[in-house]
Design goal:
Family: Belongs to the UPF0758 family.
Helix content: 40-55%
Strand content: 5-15%
Number of domains: 2
Protein name: MPN domain-containing protein
GO molecular function, one term: metal ion binding
Pfam families: RadC, UPF0758_N
CATH architecture of the largest domain: 3-Layer(aba) Sandwich
Structural class: alpha+beta
Strand order of the largest sheet: 2-1-3-4-5
CATH topology of the largest domain: Cytidine Deaminase, domain 2
CATH class of the largest domain: Alpha Beta
Keywords: Hydrolase, Metal-binding, Metalloprotease, Protease, Zinc
CATH superfamily of the largest domain: Cytidine Deaminase, domain 2
Number of helices: 9
Shape: elongated
């Protein structure tokens, strides 16, 4: 099979551009290796060179076991490209060897406060954040959606759920601080929460609660029957 020179491909078909648009999971092993190689030779494109490497080493396992010297023997690779490939494979190997990450589990509003209180209680502006959860209510991430003023923050559903979708969250908990120290939800807080709950229902991402953080105090809109 003949692979074209990168610059001859339409932009939307180039591996690097496809990765930016569609994500790494959409690319083949050859596409990913071609990105690592960056360039081919005067007569061979990076795609062709990547295909040649896989024809020599058959699969990822064999490629990972190959030495720098063995990779360098492939015409067009050389020691520099061989080192690049081995370095990338070594990073993947180290990632696979990491122990499973222990994620906090959210069972009640107090669990949320234990995670965020000390960070948010003394902020001088409103920080609107979200805890992104998986199907077991484990915290996948804590994301800052917007930073506002002393008394308000502007949050658009698009920005919130774009983050949730990117992290494959099953549900989320909203949270923001009141710099005044009083965690009582305002009318604006309640209206915004209802809007975000409705957006989540459309997208299939449950908004479980909205926690307002004050000075060592908090208010749970779920507990107050506001959600």
């Amino acid at each position: 099979m003949t692979y074209p020179v990168m610059r001859q491909l339409p932009p939307e078909q180039r591996p690097r551009e496809r990765m930016l648009k569609e994500g790494a999971a959409s690319l083949s092993d050859i596409d990913l290796l071609a990105i690592m190689l960056r360039t081919g030779t005067a007569k061979t494109s990076a795609m062709e060179l990547a295909a040649e490497i896989f024809s020599r080493f058959n699969d990822l396992r064999s490629l990972a076991q190959a030495t720098i010297e063995e990779l360098s023997q492939v015409k067009g690779v050389g020691p520099v490209k061989a080192v690049q490939v081995k370095a990338a494979l070594e990073l993947g190997k180290r990632l696979a060897a990491l122990p499973a990450e222990e994620r906090p589990v959210i069972r009640c509003p107090e669990d949320v406060c234990a995670l965020v209180m000390e960070d948010l209680r003394n902020k001088d502006r409103e920080y609107f954040q979200a805890l992104l959860l998986n199907t077991k209510n484990q915290v996948l991430a804590r994301e800052t959606i917007s930073i506002g003023t002393l008394s308000s923050s502007v949050v658009h559903p698009r920005e919130l759920f774009k983050v949730a979708i990117r992290r494959s969250a099953a549900s989320l908990i909203l949270l923001h601080n009141h710099p005044s120290g009083d965690p009582t939800p305002s009318r604006e807080d309640i209206a915004l929460t209802k809007r975000l709950v409705e957006a989540g229902q459309i997208l299939g991402i449950d908004v479980l609660d909205h926690i307002v953080i004050g000075d060592n105090r908090f208010a749970s809109m779920k507990s107050q029957g506001l959600i």
